[in-house]
Amino acid sequence: MVEQSKIKVLFHDDNAQTENSEAAAELYNQSRYGDMKKENIVQLSLIETYYLMEKGKIELYDSRNRIIDSNVLLRKAKKKQPQFLIRYSVFKDLRDRGYIVKTALKFGADFRVYDRGVKPGDDHAKWVVFPVHEGNVLTWQEFAAKNRVAHSTKKRLLLGVVDDESDVSYWECRWIRP
């Protein structure tokens, strides 16, 4: 069996972009990582980039064509996004469980998650997800705002609660009419 070579990815400030290759297009087509920008070129978020590095799918390079290791990327990501590790724990857990996870910034949430077997474009996401650390305090107003975002986008609210060991528990909330 031939080992699949890693996809070359060029790191930018907030994201990364794959090389122009069939392997990059296949990564997008099979698992919907990133956004297809041009034919066979995929733009990845910091979280997707870190996840794919951990999985050994990509090799990350800087603008001088030097390899960036995962520790350097993690430092940069935590600097840009202070809650990166909390968000990453939820992203990783959902991806490892077979869900497609995409950004939900336009909905006012961290992620939108598609049910297993559903790809973006085929149907709508089932949940909007807010990662939180178990020690964080969430006011009723903050909780109501998150629930309102989910309701107004016709999705279910999923709180991904991360503990100190980076294990994730999920709490699904939704509006009901008695």
Name of the top-level CATH class of the largest domain: Alpha Beta
How many beta-strand segments? 11
Strand content: 25-35%
Strand ordering within the main sheet: 3-4-2-1-5-6
**What is the string of helix and strand elements?**
EEHEEHEEHHEEEHEE
Which whole number gives the mean pLDDT? 91
Number of structural domains: 2
Query: What Rg, in angstroms, do the CA atoms define?
Result: 17 Å
The CATH architecture of the largest domain is 3-Layer(aba) Sandwich
**Which geometry do the CA atoms define?**
globular
Helicity range = 25-40%
Terminal Cα span: 58 Å
Largest sheet report: 6 strands, mixed
Task: Summarize the entry for a quick read.
With 178 residues, this protein is an alpha+beta fold. The chain has five helices and eleven strands.
Structure description:
The termini are far apart. The chain is an alpha+beta fold and 178 residues long. It is globular and about 55 Å long. The model has no long low-confidence stretch (mean pLDDT 91). It is 31% helix and 29% strand. The strands form 2 sheets. The chain has a 6-stranded mixed β-sheet with strand order 3-4-2-1-5-6. A 5-stranded mixed β-sheet has the order 7-8-9-10-11.
Main features:
178 residues; MutS, DNA mismatch repair protein, domain I; six-stranded mixed sheet; alpha+beta; globular; 11 strands; 2 domains; Trna Endonuclease, Chain: A, domain 1; 5 helices
